[in-house]
Design a protein that fits this description.
There is one protein chain. This protein has about 270 residues and is of the alpha/beta class. About 45% of the residues lie in helices and about 15% in strands. Helix 1 packs parallel to helix 3 and helix 4 runs parallel beside helix 6 (about 110-135). It is built from eleven helices and seven strands. The protein has helices at about 20-30, 45-50, 50-60, 70-85, 100, 110-135, 165-185, 200-205, 210-220, 225-235, 260-269, and strands at about 10-15, 35-40, 60-65, 90-95, 140-150, 190-195, 250. A seven-stranded parallel β-sheet has the order 3-2-1-4-5-6-7, with helices on both faces. The structure holds nicotinamide-adenine-dinucleotide.
Length: about 270
């Protein structure tokens, strides 16, 4: 199913590492919907991932940028406008990383330098990106900026570790910057709070397999896949959602509003 609702729109997609990445699926869905974009990722991801295959498939260019570095972001935004021949209509921030999660550090025994690194990559990079876009006046009116989040920003999931705090910070930045982007430039800023998903970042969370099954049983519609998240993001980039802003939008099959499901009760009875 494909509607060309992004025909004529231009954007930047951060975070496509491999075929599992939510950003990868989003690039495919945006392309199907008629949108043009530049792909970007950190230098290390260029070496490890397969982003050039995606670029070929979607007819897009790749520009390397570490999202924590203002000089990289400045270069990216200038270059993207050059390639796309105009201002930007949509941006996806699909970036997350915790050194403490990677190295198996328990939340009660964090390395705070790693914690700082993790929040710079996972949350502050969103502020840096928006500041660049805002100051360069790089977004078209009624443009849309989306970042990906997780319900651990609101509720405790012990294995999510310091990523929970990073996501709370990310969601707050979306609201705070979204106010000024809306008021001054008529641009939307939202976060999507996605179901647990089997990706490189997702697999880093201890016990993800068990948790995926639990979330599936708790969600009336089941877990949302990366492809479904991609399609939802297309709707947020389109003109059909022009007055949606400053929101954290749950895309989780209903998980976040369920206290307990019958499936879970049956399991324990
Ligand atoms: N997988 C899940 O269960 C899940 C659930 C909800 C939200 N999310 C969020 O979705 C987003 C995408 O993650 P994913 O699950 O597709 O995993 P992924 O590992 O495919 O994507 C994470 C991306 O972040 C990029 N990145 C890391 N450091 C960077 C830097 N300094 N500069 C630029 N890019 C950098 C990586 O290269 C990678 O492409 C993340 O924000 C993640 O927290 C994931």
């Amino acid at each position: 199913m494909s509607y060309k609702i992004l025909e004529g729109k231009k954007g930047i997609i951060f975070g496509a590492l491999d075929e599992q990445s939510i950003a990868w699926k989003t690039a495919e869905s945006v392309s199907d919907a008629g949108g043009d974009f530049v792909l970007t990722n950190a230098p290390v991801a260029m070496r490890m991932g397969t982003i050039n295959d995606l670029a070929k498939k979607t007819g897009s260019k790749v520009i390397t940028a570490d999202a924590t570095k203002m000089e990289d972001l400045n270069h990216l935004i200038d270059k993207a406008q050059e390639i796309l021949e105009g201002k930007i209509d949509f941006v996806l921030h699909s970036i997350g990383m915790s050194v403490n999660v990677r190295k198996g550090k328990h939340y009660t025994n964090l390395n705070h330098d790693w914690m700082t690194k993790g929040w710079d990559v996972s949350a502050v990079s969103f502020h840096k990106l928006m500041q660049c876009l805002y100051q360069k006046n790089a977004m078209n009116e009624w443009g849309s900026i989306v970042a990906l989040s997780y319900v651990a920003a609101q509720r405790t999931f012990p294995n999510y570790n310091d990523m929970a705090d990073n996501k709370a910070y990310l969601e707050s930045i979306a609201r705070s910057f979204g106010y000024f982007f809306g008021k001054d430039k008529k641009v939307r800023v939202n976060t999507i709070s996605q179901s647990p998903t089997l990706t490189t970042a997702g697999k880093g969370v201890e016990g993800l397999d068990g948790f995926l099954k639990y979330a599936e049983k708790m969600s009336p519609l089941g877990n949302a896949t990366a492809k479904e998240c991609a399609d939802y993001t297309v709707s947020l980039f389109s003109d059909l959602t022009r007055k949606v802003t400053l929101q954290n939008l749950y895309h989780d099959g209903g998980f976040s509003n369920v206290g307990v499901s019958q499936d879970v009760i049956d399991f324990f009875t």
